[in-house]
Amino acid sequence: MTGEPTAPLHFEELTLDIDTPQGTVHAVRGVTLELQRGEILAIVGESGSGKTLTARAALGLLPPRTRTGGRVLLGGADVLQAAPDALRAIRGGEAAMIFQEPSTALNPVFPIGWQLEEGLRAHGVSEPAERRRRTVDMLRAVGIPDPERRLGDYPHQFSGGQKQRIVIAMALALRPSVIIADEPTTALDVTVQAEILELLRECRDEFGASIVLITHNMGVVADLADRVAVMYRGELVELAPVDELFRAPREAYTRQLLAAVPRLGGGRDEPDASPASVSSAASAVPVAPAPTPAPSAATAPAVLLDGVDIEYRSGFGTKPVRAVRGVSLEIARGEVVGLVGESGSGKSTIGRAIGGLETVATGRLEVLGVELRGQSRRRLRALRRRIGFVFQDPAASFNSFMTIEDCVIEPMRIHRVAGGRSTHRARATELLDAVELPGSYASRYPFELSGGQRQRVGLARALALDPELVIADEPTSALDVSVQARVLDIFTSLQRELGFAALFISHDLAVVELLADRVGVLQGGELVELGATEQVLHAPEHPYTQQLIAAVPVPDPEVQRLRRRAEDPGHPLLDAEAIA
Amino acid sequence: MLRFIFRRLLSLLPVLFVVSVVIFSLIHLTPGDPARAILGQNATNEQVAALRESMGLDRPLVEQYLGWVGGVLTGDFGDSYFLRKSVTEAIGDNAVPTIQLAVIAIIVAIVLSVPFGTLAARFRGGRLDRSVMGFTLIGMTVPSFVLALALMVVFGLMLRWLPISGYVNPFEDFAGGIRTLIMPGIALGAITAALITRTTRAAVLDVLNADYIDAARSRGVAEGRLLFSHTLKNASLPVLTIIGLSLGGLVTGAAVTETIFNIPGLGQLLVTSIARRDYPVIQGVILFVTLIYLLTNLLIDLLYGIVDPRVRVGKA
Amino acid sequence: MPTPVTGASGIPRRRRSLRRASAVSAIVASGALVLSGCAASGDGGDAAKDVVNVVTPAQPSTLDPQISTESIMGEITGSIYETLVVTDENLVPQPMLAESFERSDDGLEYTFVLREGVKFHDGSDLTATDVVDSMNRWTRVSIAADGAFDGSEWTEVDDSTVKLTVPTASFLHLLYLSDIGTSYPAIMPSEVIEEFGDEPVQDIVGTGPYTLKEWDADQRIVIEKWDDYQSVDAPSSGRAGAKDAVLNEVVFSFVPDAATRTMGMQSGQYDVTPELPFDGLTQFQEDPNLVLGTYTIGPINLVYSDRAGGPFENVVNRQAVNTALDRDPIMLASVGSEELYDLVHHNMTEPQQAIWDTEVGKAAFNSADTAAAKALLAEGGYAGEPVTLLVTRDYTEAYNAAVVVAEQLKGIGVDVKLEALEWASYFDKYKEGRDEWDLTIIPQGTVTDPTQTVGFLPNRAGYYDTPELHDLLARFRAAPTQDDATLIFDEMQQYIETYRPLTRLGDAHNVYAASKDLELPVFNSHFVWWNASWK
Amino acid sequence: MAPTSPATANTAAPSTTVLAMQPAAGRDSLWRRMLGNTGLMTGLVVIVVIFVVSYVLPPLLQLDPYAVDPANRLAPPSPEHLFGTDNFGRDLFARIVSGASTSLLVGFVVALVSGVLGAIIGIAAVFNSVLDQVLMRICDGLMAIPAILLAVALTAALGPSVTNLVIALTIVYTPGIARLVRSRALAVTSETFVTASTMQGAGMLHLMWRHILPNTLSVLVVQSTFTFAESVITEAAMSFLGAGVPAPQASWGNILYDGKSVLMQAPQMILITSGFLIVTVLALNLIGDGLRDLVDQRSRSLVGKPGVFARMAAVVTPGRFRQEVKR
Lengths: 580, 316, 535, 327
Known about the structure:
- Chain B: The chain crosses the membrane at residues 9-29, 99-120, 132-158, 178-196, 235-261, 281-307.
- Chain B: It is found in: Cell membrane.
- The complex is a heterotetramer.
- Helix content of chain A is 36%, strand content 23%.
- By secondary structure, chain A is an alpha/beta fold.
- Chain A folds into 2 domains: 9-259, P-loop containing nucleotide triphosphate hydrolases (Rossmann fold), CATH 3.40.50; 275-386 and 467-554, 3-Layer(aba) Sandwich (Rossmann fold).
- In chain A, a hairpin with a 2-residue loop joins strand 19 (518-523) and strand 20.
- The radius of gyration of chain B is 23 Å and the shape is globular.
- By secondary structure, chain B is mostly helical.
- Chain D is mainly alpha-helical.
- The radius of gyration of chain D is 24 Å and the shape is elongated.
- The relative contact order of chain D is 0.14.
- Chains A and D meet through strand 1, strand 2, helix 1, helix 13 and helix 14 of A and helix 2, helix 9 and helix 10 of D.
């Protein structure tokens, strides 16, 4: 045995090749990595960098048709060669895993108590009373209130944060020496994220577990990690202590990665001059009527919400749910307004209402000078011609049966823009050029493009008819940071150039800070704060805004450490004594 | 819960209305005259006309329909022209064998399909999977009457293990009853078995790909336990659906199977009643079968709530 | 031997579901035949067997013996009901419920003296009132009595004597009175007749050696030995004489599917079937456990529609078709074996040859002369218009024949389209929609006399209503003796040859089968259950 | 696989599953993916062969499925009559071959018509809630009636003919397809790209035609294939009850019907015909399953080695498929 006995987890020249009908994917190429006792090791990288597979290999959880090379030593034994029984003993006992999406990591049709006990049963805790006692203890330890009563509840009866706590409780149940945490906070809101991160830290501090943390969020890394491994295309690019990495990244890729991370408080982004430009004036295509982009010249504001209530009705005879309450907001011509809030705050609903997809229960909603309430379908369609939309998930917002060109042309076809197909195509090429995509992409299908490229097509589509208003609903939240930076750049420069008004919806305060002139903060359907970006983000007045900003981990370990100390929870969230 | 059931029951009414209209108009559009069938071929046209009048068959269709529906709503399905009993009695008598047959077919199907479907999913792409899938394809392909004849020749004629045809009520003579029902049960259940096997396999595959299986695996839960405790409960939803849907097919198939095996069930009753234009029986049986089918599917919807805590019927 | 055959009147044999009509009528060999064979101890050898399982395709729609024309009814009720007179094994009428009977010299009056001590199944005594009520009802409702008994009257002379008066003497009277095929003059209690009138009776109360035990609709009918039966004190002969029942029960099971019935017979599940599929003959000949027999079930006829404007409105075209057809291939396809059909040139069947025979039409019969047929078609002005051949698939023999007929007619340039319907639709169209078809092939039962055949039956296709025809029928019915009637039969057959209302394709035979262990006498087309027993 | 497209250079999907990492499928790969799906190709080849044989052989060999020869009925297979003769002495081979064209035609037309009608009804239902209620209640009603019985009743009412049989089967199978299309269309309607199109001001027809229809096409085609198979079996079952393709026209159903009564004398009638029936339905099911795999994104990644057809194609056109076979 050549592995160092002190390291609880040791990857030795790990290679993973996956066979697919399209060929072999070399997912992980010769990664050597060691997890020290009591250490939190972050593995960062973009999607497809192989970080998750590497970590999962520690538990032998690999997709079918995977060929392995090298060794993964866990507590001295090679996981890749372990017999099924030995593997079972390792899983949960030696090493445990926390998943990205807590709602799918729990079986929806079994009570959580049953699922928690299952791991114990698998590891030979045969006494039911004992299992129950330990289960209750674990739940209490991770902060589930009233655990005795909730053992019989099903996963859907818990909130997202609570579910993640339960998943962590499961991981801790047998006090494993290694915990693999795969994007443990990605699916959660920032305030919840802060709590879970704190909980993870205590897993280490109180239980002495070593943690492998997989994440793409540099803020989380800065907050939690001791050392950072950077992976790119299956290879380990850089491995360094966290302070060192942030202070002086050695590799170009790491630098690039860090540079792309938007930082809260970084101020407004000044984009480079756009290499291409699109303007209706210069366009060969007459897109009439040409809107006047000058913000001051506009007679009516782009959007006017005045005491707007929006209600959902889930079915006949059910009580309507009020998603938006008394929101008043004005977006001037040419202005970019950011709207932030956690999930369920109603930010997307407002965006949809402006597009006419939701009906306003009370209050006034005017878009480009047109009152939306009681508007006929035809007038609504005519109005939509003047609005562009960018959606969150670029993969889902394109019909996979249409080429990129068709997608971009679609708005022109819908509104029967003069000029016929050849003019439309010329315009499409121009638009693709504007979002920095080569014209050859016109004949491709959406699924042949990467996420970032798709989102740029989404932008091109939104701009096809020279809109006066663009609504962007979380346009970058599904993208990797480096890709996100590029899309945001393009968006900003096009906005400058074309002068459309924009409503930019996001949960990411740093992103909003990059673009928005003004920012609105939503909580539970109410607009709690609205003001100039700098003011709201740097000198927030409302306690919720303050809380929100405080919860965002800063992608700088030193700063983050200071911030944490300032907050100091005072008491450990995790009560290790209770579990002993 | 009760309100939910009530609402669901209420929603069956339009479906039953459609069925009643379709059946009624189809039957009355079909050439062939029950009065002539009753009187025999030697009746004079005057006799036939008189009987038609006394049966009310000369009245406008809408009037006849309303009369029939009115009766049905008060629980009176009318009297058979030929069986010398009321339609309700006839259905009562003939439903017993059909339901027994359907139950046996479903049992045969489930006993065969759930374990094999699960194992096929577990060993996806392996030899077991391929042979199970091959068998299901054949099961879905061989028409039930061909299977029925083959079974009769082999087990009834060559081996003489089982009676060729006929029916004995298992509640009166259990062994004898099972002996008469086992061949028709297999012939009828084969297609359903194939369907359920495939559904089980697909559903289990779905579940096996779910995160929570990986999560359970990461806790060290054994593979066998994963397969049979985790997946089966999750996979039972689509399987339940397909069972509900195939019940319709079972009664349909029963028409052929019952005719071949001479089982006095609803299917055979229906086929003979169509041949002799016994309008009240045809209408009553089809309405009854439809109702059973709809109620079964309602029951299965309710079962969802038990299997899957997310489907809370009370609030649906 | 001259065999006056009883059976359904000139109507289609009814088959399939309720209208199965497979009369075991007229055995090939002679009047009576006892099926017997060496005990080949089949697997049905339970101890003390006194039950026989009979399998037939479908239940009768009613068991009313006076109304029903379905032969399965006759099969079942033959041992439940009795008539005044029956035929013995020499086909001579013998008294049954009557002690004695006599015919007046002028043939206009018959007197029947009733047997003493006869009881109905319900325990009541048989009286002259019962007989008069029964016979008068029969005269009204029975298709068999139609025509021959027009204007006749039954009266009660005293408690044990009844009298029948008829307007004209006819050989037909005793023939029909002793007929026990279908719609026969069964005697039932007056109370039953009062209750049901001319509607089918539902209380099956007779005087015979068996009683109706159970009728499970569409499943089975069980008849059971009646212990209080008062037998005639005379040796058993044909249907006459003593009836000392041995079998306790006879179970008639109704199985619609032919393949299932066949396999059921083969596997020993059933003991007797009056009707195997035609192709069963060759298949079962080697079966050591079964005894087979065949009997004539009746003609398969091609009937021409008289629709106005149709090609067969013209008799020349009808003759053309008649000339063209080659009957052997047709019948071979129809029944599957040369042993299972006869070709007869007149309207009656081969077993009736001794009584009903004629030279008329014999020479030109089955000429299969396509050249002559084409010439006739040209003469008849047939110009290739489409012709619809209507048939039902529910009678395989008719359907099979139709397929070959259609092929042969195509051979002489007739544009035939086969329209195969299920029975109910077919029969509706056959009776009511005569302007929607040109030709039909219909299987029919054997009949007692020629007036019951197509061409002479009113309200049917092929009935050309002329004074000539009326006169012919009247003269025939008034023939006092068989010999007189036979003479007029020549004229009737000449009428058929001239007007060509139908073309007879051939007579089909049925195959019946019974277990070798069963002693089962068959007489005059029916199993004689009271003389049957297990060996 | 096609050389890595530029897209794969920075594939960045939100998920970190293997799927995201695999090279994106090239556009021209449909044909190749079909070749890779052995079941699908087997099914297609079988169906095409049966189709061609049933239309080409009869005129070529002068097969007459109607020529009766009662003297020579129920003959066992011989050089003269490859499959023997039926109960009319007709050549069974000619009957089966000509029956193939009837059965396949019935199945095909039913699949086509019910597919089209089902698509129209299903999609229309999504766009109007009143229409939806009415149409779906009718569909529910028709679906609740056992299929064969409904078909038998319909043909009884309409009268026996191939056209009426097709109409009856279409009425029987359309509701199921309509329901399926509707549920798929409902799912598609809630997809972002439909919202995107709506936000661009798209009208109902545009949404239906450009977005909903293409995205329901996959289920539609798959289901139509299964309907094809079902129709072939149902026609046979109906003939078995005496209500299928009217005689003397040959269809597999009525050959089986005729064969049933001579099961013992000429078992080849049932055996050979059911053999053909089973192979055909099997092939159609394989096509359906194959198509489903083809349109199901999930199963794409899990297909194993190139199948026998891909290898054959590689032999015939080495250049095009080299990369695939090399593995």
